[in-house]
Design goal:
Mean pLDDT: 95
Number of strands: 18
Helix content: 25-40%
Distance between the termini: 42 Å
Bound molecules: pyridoxal-5'-phosphate
Shape: globular
Low-confidence stretches: none
Number of helices: 13
Radius of gyration: 24 Å
Length: about 450
């Protein structure tokens, strides 16, 4: 395996985990360089195949606790259609967050009863498409339910809905904007669903963060609600616990701890920028092991979550985005310049902008990999990767990087494990710089994803 840190690492290193396909590609600098010539910089390189392992990890864990898990791929985490195809080939459902996402899922052959619509805002056109197709709709608020009911009347169709619950998790948790209070759930179930127009077949929640304890608490509240709804004559089939299933991007807990220790006493970031809101890029337990912790935890009635679900005949569903895409992508871009500011700080200009490798986290806390396409080594430097937007703080990563053998124009910077959110959730085409191409690895070739052709038509 190549020593990926040989050419670039953070001044306090945070080495990313890499898949075999990533090691193979990184060993072919000329190939990546040719892709950048052909498709522009940056390019998103996507291999859908790790999704199988990730999904099996979750499904096998649930099965070992006696549950058949309904996994709905949260498509908002990445727009590539090849990932929808991969999810469907694995018999997963799809969680959609917009009309385009829903339309595309249907066009790719997703059966409507394997789609859940969880969009934060649902205009009439989106609800109508969901209704016509038979997609399950997660209801966030009373106005949405009213509109849906009007659309049902007008079309003569009935809707399958899940009521989205806003669980009570304690004062120190963020007050969620999503979902209905427990009392509202009971009230709306009574008021809106006497007729055949709306069938409430499940309860749903998605929580901020990655805490297993929060999910256990939310499940417990939902089970109580399901009991009440059942007493009131509803037949509830499933409980959907949303996403937020954790993954770990880094190889080493020691590096992660060491970074935070040093961050308190020395400047590791641009202008000493504090890092206050970051994803836990190293964490344990993750995915299947994390899920086992949830399923084996006791709920109110003193039995394990898995037993409580089974006892009620409920299907457990989830909507993983990031955790299904673990290992599915990386983003490559070309170095265009090196320069020193008046104060001597080195800036390395890369042909991409910061929205092309960003999430809601303050920084992407995984070291980029430097691939040397041609040219020799130079003097060691430390500096910051800057991007294409005309903004002083246009940093591709806030952390200072070290280049032990220099950095050359034409070198390639590769950000590992970017498929979950990092590529797309905040990407913009400001300055009229085109969005990145999304290339799918299939049988050794990298070809543009169909989403890029669809975007070109808009
Ligand atoms: C309703 C809903 N479900 C699922 C997800 C996916 O979450 P994650 O990628 O953390 O698994 C999200 C993410 O925002 C969401 O809003």
């Amino acid at each position: 395996m190549s020593d990926v840190a040989a050419l670039c690492e953070g001044v306090s290193p945070l080495t990313g985990r890499l898949e075999q396909w990533q090691h193979r590609l990184l060993a072919e600098p000329q190939l990546i360089s040719d892709l950048l010539d052909r498709h522009g910089s940056p390019v998103n390189l996507i291999d859908p195949s790790p999704m199988r392992r990730n999904a099996h990890d979750l499904a096998d864990t649930a099965a070992s606790e006696g549950l058949q898990l309904g996994i709905y791929f949260a498509r908002k985490a990445n727009k590539a259609l090849a990932l929808v195809d991969e999810a469907l080939s694995l018999d997963l459902g799809i969680d959609v967050a917009s009309e385009a996402e829903l339309r595309q899922a249907l066009e790719r052959g997703a059966p409507a009863d394997r789609i859940i619509l969880t969009a934060a805002v649902k205009p009439a056109a989106l609800l109508s498409l969901a209704l016509e197709s038979g997609t399950t709709i997660s209801i966030d608020n009373e106005d949405e339910l009213r509109l849906l009911k009007r659309l049902c009347r007008r079309s003569g169709r009935s809707a399958t809905v899940a009521l989205r619950v806003a669980p009570e998790l304690g004062e120190d948790r963020i007050q969620t904007r999503f979902g209905l209070q427990a009392e509202e759930v009971v009230k709306l179930a009574g008021r809106f669903a006497q007729a055949d127009e709306l069938v409430i077949s499940g309860l749903h929640f998605h929580l901020d963060g990655y805490s297993a304890a929060d999910r256990i608490c939310a499940i417990s509240q939902c089970l109580d609600l399901i009991d009440q709804l059942s007493e009131n004559g509803h037949t509830i089939d499933f409980l959907d616990i949303g996403g937020g299933i954790p993954i770990s991007y880094l190889e080493s807990e020691r590096q992660w701890r060491s970074f935070w220790k040093r961050h308190t006493s020395e400047s590791l970031t641009f202008g000493g920028h504090p890092l206050t809101n970051v994803y836990p890029y190293y964490q344990q337990p993750v995915r299947g092991t994390w899920l086992r912790g949830v399923l084996t935890a006791p709920v109110n009635e003193g039995i394990a979550v898995a037993d409580a679900l089974r006892r009620r005949g409920l299907q457990l569903r989830c909507e993983p985005g990031r955790s299904l895409l673990d290992g599915c992508g990386m983003t490559a871009a070309r170095v265009e310049f090196r320069k020193q500011r008046r104060d001597g700080t080195w800036l390395i200009g890369v042909a991409m902008n910061r929205t092309q490798c960003r999430s809601t986290s303050d920084d992407f806390m995984v070291d980029p990999i430097l691939v040397r396409a041609d040219g020799g080594d130079g003097a060691p430097i430390e500096g910051f990767l800057v991007g294409a937007y005309c903004i002083e703080r246009e940093l591709l990563t806030l952390r200072r990087m070290r280049f032990p053998r220099g950095v050359q124009v034409g070198d390639i910077v590769v950000f590992p494990n970017t498929a979950g959110y990092l590529m797309h959730i905040l990407e913009s085409a400001s300055h009229q710089i085109p969005l990145a191409s999304n290339l799918i690895l299939r049988d050794g070739d990298l070809e543009p994803d169909a989403i890029d052709a669809a975007a070109a038509l808009i």
